[in-house]
Amino acid sequence: MLVAREELKTLMKNKFVAAGLSEEHAEQTAEVLTWSSERGLHSHGEVRVEYYTERIAKGGITHDPQWTWEQTGPCSGMLDGDNGCGYPFAIKGLEYAMQMAKENGIGVVGVRRVSHTGALGYYTEMAAKNDLCLLTMCQSDPMVIPYGGAEPFYGTNPIAFGAPTADDRFVNFDMATTVQAWGKILDAKSAGRSIPDTWAVDVDGRPVTDPHMVNALVAIAGPKGYGLMMMVDILSGVLLGVPAGKNVSSMYHDLSEGRDLGHLHIVIDPARFAGLDAFKQHMSEVLDELSAVKPGPNADKVYYPGERALIRKAACDAAGGIEIVDSIYDYLTSDKLYINSWDHKNRFAE
Ligand code: NAI
After folding, report:
1. What is the per-residue burial (b if ≥16 Cβ within 10 Å, else e) of 46-76?
2. Largest alpha-carbon pair distance within the chain?
3. Nearest alpha carbon, ligand 1 atom 3
4. What is the spatial distance between Cα 143 and Cα 219, in angstroms, rounded to a whole number?
5. Which residues of the chain have pLDDT under 70?
6. Residue closest by Cα to atom 39 of ligand 1
């Protein structure tokens, strides 16, 4: 059903506040989730609310985190979130990184000991709108078979890059290092759809189409995707002194415990390289040149990364709201904190 943007955001925020999160953190979290939903990233939007609400209610997200910030050099710093809600700390860490980049050309901030930080494109868009490039990445719970292995070891470890242009476009490349994000499995479950047999495997490592049978995901591009997800885990985990690899906490196990996740922002100020105006102008030209490339078979045009999400956002604006599945709206408008408990189930249990 179609739900107006502000109604959806308010419903999500209200759940988080009812579970014990501060108004400020609930507001920021609901905004990022709404941002995701209206770009078609439902897997990182309203689909997650029930799970977050349960984790907040059970104390696995700190309600009043005693966070700390330490600037460790002119261009580096560590933000410790005391296992508070991930979104507000990813935003706060980016603000520090952007400030250092404006002052010194580059800003690298490790955001450590936080909960899930969602769709990374929110942060890359935020940087691009501030005339900055951002490379950002974070850990995710082990659910991907390493190349040549038979057991999950790494997470879907997403990585994203954003850059401004001279017009209202911006590049927003944002991907999980798996063929599909785990959220897309959640999407398929909530919509009752099957999945392509190239996304995931069952307990025996066999490809599956039933999202309820999924035991592990598969990295993109074989050993290359495996190496990329390892790099993300090193830079957003080992580098920040939090658990890494198979020791990263599970999203759906013990919702009363903090997750200790890591997230790294690397902000670059184009003004210190080609010059801001020259960079932005050149970026616009590159996007124009890409748009002029002759489409291949089964493609209507060549899109730049992030373009299709903006088209989906424009469609939501035109429709006057965001299309979500009825059962989620029923939950959001109910007086229950959560209906389906995830606690102590592994991530693949229903
Ligand atoms: P996706 O596969 O939908 O898109 C990946 C990238 O490809 C995007 O930049 C998109 O703009 C681009 N793209 C897609 N189709 C295109 C086309 N036809 N032409 C040009 N570019 C195209 O993204 P994925 O991997 O499913 O990730 C979804 C979201 O999940 C992301 O926002 C990611 O950050 C988030 N995520 C978050 C995790 C976390 O723990 N915080 C873990 C995993 C994913």
Report:
1. bbbbbbbbbbbbbebbbeebebeeeeeeebb
2. 54
3. 175
4. 10
5. 346-350
6. 118
Considering only CA atoms, which of 350, 348, 340 is closest in space to residue 52? Answer: 340
- Catalytic sites, residue numbers: 116
CA–centroid distance, residue 138 to ligand 1 (Å): 14
Give the DSSP H or E segment for 216: strand 216-218
Give the pLDDT confidence score for residue 243 in this predicted structure: 98
Q: Supply the pLDDT for residue 348.
A: 58
Pocket flag, ligand 1, residue 116 (CB < 6 Å) = yes
- What DSSP assignment string belongs to 288-346? HHHHTSPP-TT-SSPPPTTHHHHHHHHHHHHHTSEE--HHHHHHHTSS-S-SS--TTS-
Q: Alpha-carbon distance 308 to 93, whole Å?
A: 27
Distance 158 CA to ligand 1 centre (A): 8
Report how far ligand 1's centroid is from the alpha carbon of 136 (Å): 13
CA distance 236 to 213: 30
